[in-house]
Amino acid sequence: MPYEARQPSCYVHEMVPNHSRQLALKNERMDECYFDNNLNPFCSFAEGFFYERKIYMISLKAVSKKFNTKQGQIVAVDGVNLDIKKGEIFGIIGYSGAGKSTLIRLLNGLEKPTGGKIIVNGQEITSISEAKLRQVRQKVSMIFQHFNLLWSRTVAENIAFPLEIAGVPKDKRADRVNELIELVGLEGRGDYYPSQLSGGQKQRVGIARALANRPEVLLCDEATSALDPETTDSILDLLISINEKLGLTIVLITHEMQVIQKICNRVAVMEAGHVVEEGDVLEVFQNPKQPITKRFVSQVSEKGQAEQTIQRLVELYPNGKLIKLVFVGEQTEQPILSKLIKQFDLEVNIVQGNISHTKSGAFGTLILQLEGNSSAIEDAIHFIHEQKVLTEVISND
Ligand SMILES: Nc1ncnc2c1ncn2[C@@H]1O[C@H](COP(=O)(O)OP(=O)(O)OP(=O)(O)O)[C@@H](O)[C@H]1O
């Protein structure tokens, strides 16, 4: 249902009637309609409730894309439903072959779906003419992993290119190019050729060029995958600032959870052509549901990495008991291990350990495998407790 019920009292004082939009709503059989001061979202009064119409910049309804190849049919995108809000940064993550590139190319009409509907800024783009599609594309621009710059043109000429195509007069082009060069932090580089720029600078040119015709949506196709981590960070910062300054909706595809973590409001996880999980980034990080999402989240969370390591150790050391000791400060200097071996009739194997030194002291963990009779193991754990070392049993045989 496209409407969300609200208690009547919550919006009344913020709304002004808007007659032109009332006409638009007549078809939707609403009794009355009101708008907030920004005319967005608009609401209507019907059956005693206010309904807030959710405004989406992009909606995908049961979208599929199949390719017929010599080897048979490939279903690259399979029945995807997605709603991307105006002004948000939306990330689509998946491993290679999941269907991300195909999906993003569907959003600006570079690919035509074999099933379903795609609505961009209120316009259904799946069945419109090529001429109309070209207009939509001016409002939905794209940046690429390998920048796709014109190598024989300078930075300024690259940025001016979409303006030339759109028929913007020369003097206006020059002003807009200067504005864009400043926006992306390339002052003084206007006369350089792409070959004279670093990877990060090339992507800045790509971003400036994509923004030239004031798009409403920026699609980013693995835009930072060819960059080193530091440059990636600076390009992501630039995307955040553009999103905030211009209110631009950004849709990006990536296979790196760091990118999602750093800049996205919401994320969809793709696997084998399907969106298998979707939600606010924080929620997905805190409570990933699907195995593939858990794997992506573990790329970036220490907890996730530790869980993965422990899982591996449990498989590698199935006998006895695996215990984890956590040392903090002075405990790191105690000879616990030698006492343990001397006092108890046990096989003690060090499975993994690390100590990190920080300005405020040392801390570390040690994972041990204890093999022997069960009462000796219990006594040993009790002994470690007495030394005030935090102990956790992570597996029993
Ligand atoms: N033009 C095409 N013709 C035939 N098959 C295609 C075409 N484009 C994509 N595919 C196939 O569709 C599937 C999804 O590909 P897609 O490139 O969308 O995935 P991806 O998640 O972007 O992966 P990658 O990051 O490796 O590009 C793959 O099996 C791919 O081989």
UniProtKB/TrEMBL annotation:
This is D-methionine transport system ATP-binding protein. It comes from Psychrobacillus insolitus. Transmembrane segments: none annotated. One of its GO terms (biological process) is amino acid transport. Residues 58-297 form the ABC transporter domain. PANTHER family: AMINO ACID IMPORT ATP-BINDING PROTEIN, METHIONINE IMPORT ATP-BINDING PROTEIN METN 2. GO terms for molecular function: ATP binding; ATP hydrolysis activity. CDD domains: ABC_MetN_methionine_transporter. The lineage of its organism: Bacteria, Bacillati, Bacillota, Bacilli, Bacillales. It holds the Pfam family ABC_tran. Keywords: Amino-acid transport, ATP-binding, Cell membrane, Membrane, Nucleotide-binding, Translocase, Transport. InterPro entries: AAA+_ATPase, ABC_transporter-like_ATP-bd, ABC_transporter-like_CS, ACT-like_dom_sf, MetN_ABC, MetN_ABC_transporter-like, NIL_domain, P-loop_NTPase. GO terms for cellular component: plasma membrane. Belongs to the ABC transporter superfamily.
